[in-house]
UniProtKB/TrEMBL annotation:
GO molecular function, one term: oxidoreductase activity, acting on CH-OH group of donors
Keywords: Cell membrane, Heme, Iron, Membrane, Metal-binding, Repeat, Signal, Transmembrane, Transmembrane helix
Location within or outside the cell: Cell membrane
Region (Disordered), start-end ranges: 46-70
Coiled-coil residue spans: none
Residues reported to bind heme c 2: 233, 236
UniProt-recorded name of the protein: Cytochrome c, mono-and diheme variants
Cofactor: how and how many bound: Binds 3 heme c groups covalently per subunit.
Amino acid sequence: MKATKSPAARTANRARQKRAGAALSATLFCAFSLYIAWHASHESQTRPVDELPMSSARGDDSPASAADADKPELVRRGEYLARVGDCAACHTADPSRPFAGGLAIDTPFGRIYTPNITPDRDTGIGQWSDTDFVRAMHEGIGKGGERLYPAFPYVEFTRVAGRDVLAIRAYLNTVAPVHYTAPANALRFPFNQRWLMILWNLFNFDESRFVPDPKQSAEFNRGAYLVEGLAHCEECHTPRNFMQGLRTTERFSGATQAGWQAYNITPDRAGGIGDWSDDALIAYLSTGVAAGHANAAGPMADVVQNSTQYFTREDLRSVVAYLRALPPVSGGKTRPRDAWGKRAADGITALRGAPVTTVNGLQLFAANCASCCQWTGAGMGTNAPGANDLARVILHGVARKTKDADVLMPACRDELGNGQVAAISNYVTKRFGNPQATITADPVAALRAEPR
């Protein structure tokens, strides 16, 4: 007959098992930590050497050097590339202090403030060497060896050729130095531990320069270099995994960025831009308006104003050629978003002389929107977007200035209550957009409270 262990013996056995488990966990953690340390120490020895310059698609592969930094043509090229990369958008919180940083970026892990990249020697990058600057762009490592957070898109910038990185540096050396230190980041533990970025990089970062595809045209390769690299389009248009890395299996299929919907830009005809003409795509990137398709607002309006409106026609055509060649992703959509809605605002005449007794979307639209957007909605330039994005537009307005147009829609947050904003949004999306996209007063209140 098998002897039964006493309670004391069972307790002692469980205690031994716990100590053994703890020892094993500690051993595995130490081994993993040693691997991480080894990996970090050997990174510089395993850097890829497949770098090709941006200009290789055009047959110009002459190298750049520090001695070129004073050449006006290099600075002009660097200014153009800085606009392609939209550097000012993130590194300018105060328009009177361009590139001085301080812009707050809210992430699921806390708030990050962008750094000063003016040539100020104390608070900017004035004491950075060219090597320091290239390392930050290519590897996500700062001058002091600290790991940079991927709010700085080095995941894409790693693909940019060294020649172009140095051109950007040459341009930044010419901007006015600003003595300003951004506030400290406010990240929760353990995300405020920069060394953890080593682990994040293992799963989400592949350091490698862009290599043209010999099977594709020079125009395609140029577009691929821009979209995948300096323009970092995936940062907004690709969904993210639980670590906030890019979900590479769903590239360019659309995602939420700063609360706004960044739409699918694959060539799927229902979910993406497959039914847009080349001219419509070029018009949207250069002016923010693609008649009958979309009208840029929110973060995309800033991208158009600060970046894509300055693209050369060659680069715009190259971007379009690349987007056309992407694998189409429907995202479950069965009809294009610009195929929803009607073009007539029925019931306008019935409002004449009618008393205002309830919160009525049509009445509010007629009183607040129709003078610019017209009764038919034609003044909006496109079908209405999702209800959340539309509510943000109503609350915060639109200000988008390009070489060809100055678009201004006044903010109505001080004139309209949450229920009124919801009523207008629902009326417009039902009449001119997807009738299934609705919103109520409580979500509008949350949108109103979002930091601007």
